[in-house]
């Protein structure tokens, strides 16, 4: 009875409170309005405390055209109206925002908050401090929050005095207003050092401050709003923030996202849900390359994305030129003379040199320069054993011992060195000219990666581990990954945070190298004991692809275990998949059926698909 009676008796006062808010929002915040708003502010505070939010107070503001509104808005609808009203004011539609609040009967902000904002933006620090006392009962955290807010106000006041060339006034604020707060003492000491700035430019730089004006005061207001509950003052740009979150969530759910651009609220339509079409994804067969005459064991795009190298059991490597506009490749040349089948290829960062190696029983390594007709002699020793080299145009062949097994290699990212090794215990560090710099004895490796620091090497070994080795002084090694089954191959993404591991009898695993934990087991792929290579892909490497013993190419989103696509066309095991690092709409796969397939989007020039059998 008492509460209902109070509500009826205060109808006229609430009507005055809403009218006062509209008047204040039109820029009429001044000293004479402060007293008249005190009672209406107290009424609003009573509503907030009685209900835990401003719902009741907003309902009592509900008068349009001099009479009570007849439409009823629930809490969600009132929140939406307030969000729209805030956005209208941000874009400059002040009158529209006022009419919306008047017609809906909602209060965009508490009257005391409106005054507070006006005084902050006008630089009236005395009145802004007085407004804090009115807001005190409404602020979460009470004493600590009020102290922090007052500190921020005085900090701005102090800096503006310094900029205006009023050091005595600034010193008074520092000694008699900031210091007595006993808040954030290290910051007070830092502020005192700004007294020594020779000019305003130095002050701006040292304080990371834009200077007196609308920009710095708006930033201050944004910080102050964090202490005010949303029933009193909405967080800054709240509607835009919610829409940005919606776009981000839709992007996360978009299975094919990442292939074209990085989406945000400014480059997508808010009128429909975001969804990338699979038509831009590399799922369409573009070309079938039949130039090899035996099983194709490896394929790899060059770092510049303009070349593709394929290696086969027929002992040849074919270099293909990539035409990213026509979405096709053309044969450039064939690299012959290898003693064994070609089971791996490592590109140099310059996309001109490459290392070619063979299977487990291959003791040789070839370094090719595919651009120049050039002979280079390489010499060096490993312990008491000399390397031998046979030379011919454009290539260098390395061989240590007939008992060696050089089955993997990786260039450093600055291109000055490379590492090579195998499962019989060879592990060498060489420079690009072939000089042997270091060895690590007794390490049996079947996969290598040279990190961007150009000194640390990741190596998969026969103990189901990936370990890091630092060749430079001081030397050190440590285990990064431990699996329960053999690691057949592995690849690392550009950030060097994630690694894809093809695991014998298990399939494809994603590891976090920094946290040293298994992130995901991708489903669908068939992995026995064959050597199969997988790859990261997409503009932001948000996808992974792998070959499989069931003759398919599998593609996954990096955050989902179930495959996004299964590419069908090969008739035998798919040994290797390579995603073009520069033109992510292109994907290549190599198979035991003797072919290399090029995959791309559906929207490609017609002649690009004419090469598909």
Secondary structure topology:
Elements: H1 2-9, H2 11-25, H3 31-51, H4 55-60, E1 63-64, E2 67-68, H5 75-90, H6 94-104, H7 111-122, H8 125-135, H9 143-163, H10 167-178, H11 185-193, H12 200-207, H13 214-225, H14 238-253, E3 284-289, E4 296-301, E5 307-312, E6 317-323, E7 328-335, E8 344-347, E9 353-357, E10 364-369, E11 381-382, E12 385-386, E13 388-392, E14 395-399, E15 408-411, E16 417-421, E17 427-431, E18 436-439, E19 445-450, E20 456-461, E21 465-470, E22 476-482, E23 487-492, E24 498-503, E25 507-512, E26 517-522, E27 534-537, E28 543-546, E29 553-557, E30 565-567, E31 574-579, E32 587-591, E33 596-600
Antiparallel strand pairs: 1-2, 3-33, 4-5, 5-6, 6-7, 8-9, 9-10, 10-14, 11-12, 13-14, 15-16, 16-17, 17-18, 19-20, 20-21, 21-22, 23-24, 24-25, 25-26, 27-28, 28-29, 29-30, 31-32, 32-33
Helix pairs in contact: 2-3, 5-6, 7-8, 7-13, 8-9, 9-10, 9-13
Characteristics:
four-stranded antiparallel beta sheet, about 625 residues, about 25% strand, alpha+beta
Question: In brief, what are we looking at here?
Answer:
The protein has about 625 residues and is α+β, with helices and mostly antiparallel strands.
Describe, in plain words, how this protein is organized in 3D:
There is one protein chain. The chain has about 625 residues and is α+β, with helices and mostly antiparallel strands. The protein is about 30% helix and about 25% strand. It is built from 14 helices and 33 strands. The longest helix has 21 residues, at about 30-50. The protein is elongated, with a radius of gyration of 35 Å. It starts with a helix and ends in a 13-residue tail after the last strand. Mean pLDDT is about 85; it is low at about 1-70 and about 375-395.
């Amino acid at each position: 009875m008492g509460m209902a009676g109070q509500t009826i008796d205060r109808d006229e006062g609430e009507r005055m409170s809403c009218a006062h808010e509209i008047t204040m929002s039109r820029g009429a915040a001044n000293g004479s309005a402060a007293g008249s708003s005190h009672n209406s502010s107290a009424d609003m505070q009573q509503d907030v405390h009685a209900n835990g939010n401003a719902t009741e107070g907003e309902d009592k503001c509900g008068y349009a055209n001099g009479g009570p509104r007849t439409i009823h808005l629930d809490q969600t609808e009132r929140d939406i109206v307030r969000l729209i009203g805030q956005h209208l004011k941000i874009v400059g539609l002040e009158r529209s925002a006022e009419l919306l609040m008047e017609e809906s009967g909602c209060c965009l902000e508490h009257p005391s908050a409106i005054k507070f904002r006006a005084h902050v933006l006008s630089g009236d620090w005395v009145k802004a401090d007085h407004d804090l006392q009115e807001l005190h009962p409404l602020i979460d955290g009470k004493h600590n929050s009020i102290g922090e807010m007052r500190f921020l106000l005085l900090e701005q006041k102090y800096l503006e005095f310094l900029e205006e060339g009023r050091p005595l006034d600034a010193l008074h604020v520092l000694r008699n207003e900031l210091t007595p707060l006993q808040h954030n003492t290290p910051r007070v000491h830092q502020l005192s050092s700004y007294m020594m700035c020779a000019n305003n430019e130095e002050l701006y730089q040292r304080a990371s401050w834009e200077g007196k004006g609308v920009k710095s005061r708006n930033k201050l207001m944004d910080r102050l709003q964090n202490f005010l509950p949303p029933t009193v003052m909405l967080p800054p740009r709240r509607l835009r923030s919610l829409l940005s979150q919606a776009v981000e969530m839709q992007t996360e759910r978009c299975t094919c996202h990442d292939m074209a651009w990085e989406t945000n609220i400014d480059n997508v339509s808010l009128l429909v849900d975001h969804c990338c079409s699979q038509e831009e994804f590399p799922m369409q067969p573009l070309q079938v390359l039949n130039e090899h005459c035996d099983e194709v064991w490896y394929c790899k795009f060059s770092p510049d994305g303009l070349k593709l190298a394929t290696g086969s059991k027929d002992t040849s490597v074919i270099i293909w030129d990539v035409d990213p506009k026509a979405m096709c490749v053309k044969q450039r040349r064939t690299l012959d003379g290898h003693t064994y089948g070609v089971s791996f290829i490592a590109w140099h960062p310059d996309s001109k040199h490459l290392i070619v190696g063979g299977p487990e029983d291959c003791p040789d390594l070839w370094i090719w320069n595919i651009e120049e007709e050039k002979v280079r002699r390489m010499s060096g020793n490993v312990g008491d054993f000399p390397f031998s080299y046979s030379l011919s145009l454009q290539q260098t062949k390395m061989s240590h011992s007939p008992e060696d097994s050089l089955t993997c290699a990786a260039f450093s990212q600055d291109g000055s060195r490379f590492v090579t090794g195998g499962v019989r215990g060879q592990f060498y560090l060489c420079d690009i000219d072939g000089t042997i710099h270091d060895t690590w004895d007794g390490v049996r490796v079947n996969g290598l990666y040279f990190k961007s620091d150009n000194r640390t090497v990741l190596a998969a070994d026969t103990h189901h581990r990936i370990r890091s080795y630092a060749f430079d002084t001081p030397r050190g090694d440590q285990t990064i990954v431990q699996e329960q089954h053999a690691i057949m191959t592995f690849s690392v993404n550009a950030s060097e945070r994630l690694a894809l591991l093809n695991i014998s009898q298990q399939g494809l695993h994603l590891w976090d190298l920094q946290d040293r934990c298994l992130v995901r087991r991708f489903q669908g792929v068939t992995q026995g004991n064959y050597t199969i290579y997988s790859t990261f892909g997409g503009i932001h490497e948000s996808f992974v692809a792998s070959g499989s013993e069931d003759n398919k190419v599998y593609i996954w989103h990096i955050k989902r275990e179930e495959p996004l696509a299964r590419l069908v066309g090969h008739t035998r095991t798919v040994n290797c998949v390579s995603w073009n690092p520069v033109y992510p709409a292109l994907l290549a796969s190599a198979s035991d059926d003797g072919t290399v397939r090029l995959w791309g989007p559906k929207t490609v020039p017609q002649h690009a698909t004419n090469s598909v059998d």
